[in-house]
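User: For a reading group we're discussing how well predicted structures match intuition. Take LacI family fructose operon transcriptional repressor. Before you show the prediction, I'll give you the sequence so everyone sees exactly what went in.
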Amino acid sequence: MSLDKQQKRTTIYDLAELAGTSASAVSVVLNGNWKKRRISKQLAEKIMRIAEEQGYALNMQASLLRRDKSHIIGMIVPKYDNRYFGSIVELFETMARDKGLFPLITCTRRDPALEIEAARAMLSYQVDCVIATGATDPDRITELCAAAGVRTINLDLPGKLAPSVISDNFAGARELTRRILASCQQRFGSMEPLMFIGGRGGDHNTMERLRGFRQAHADHGIDIGDDRVIACGYAPEKAQNALQERAASGLPFSRGMFVNSTITLEGVLRWVRLAGPVGEQDVALGCFDYDPLVALLGDNIEMVRQDVPAMLARMFELIERGSFEPSVSEIPPVLR
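Assistant: Thanks. Here is the predicted 3D structure of LacI family fructose operon transcriptional repressor, as structure tokens, for the group to look at:
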């Protein structure tokens, strides 16, 4: 069935007539520039109300004019493919909605250019706050957002220009290393220097975990050389290739290994099971990350679970208090 006449679309001239003002004033309000043109809030709200009543198609900026805040909160995350970042995203969505906020989330794959592109896109949606999670350059994101009058908080990795909420990587790594050493003592009859595998040597979390790793060895009077540290990145294939290269070079292996994420753990286990010089039951592993499925692999893997609920609770506390001065909140992780 067709209509002889299509319904006439509402124009800004129709809205101007209904609001008792000029078409230019309507255009300014709908384009989001009414404050700069000294149009009263009362008139802007009236135009917006009439536009909605008439079914006028609003752009994103115009739809936000009726309130001082957009109640949109953005989050940039580096990865979706491990339980840690997945749990951050899932709980962030739940907590944001419970607080009357609309969560806007995007994955940037640890690409600095994508991080900036994502921040710019979020600013175009007039977000109230941007959460930079695991960002490669959080300060650059903060500077970009600050220029637009938008606050930022860093999560997982710290920055210098905005508040940061992170795990206590040093204390968590120190305790995890102690447990791996104790496991070696129990299973093999002696403590020997462990190997540290995964992560980027220049990022804050890896440096702090390495500091805890070394301190735990020092606590037991064990010397640990730089050759025991393989900061090969996080990807499984990089860990597997690094271990294969070490085996080919003839360098010694430890029967205890500190693995810097469950992503890296995948590569370590693949190497141990398929090509390693040690058997599956001849290595004690510890992982600074958590996945309950790992428990099915046996009792020889210790894990650290970063306390995502406490981290996000602290983050929202800072937002609600309006605390955006640079600071670092370290949240103790949980040992499995």
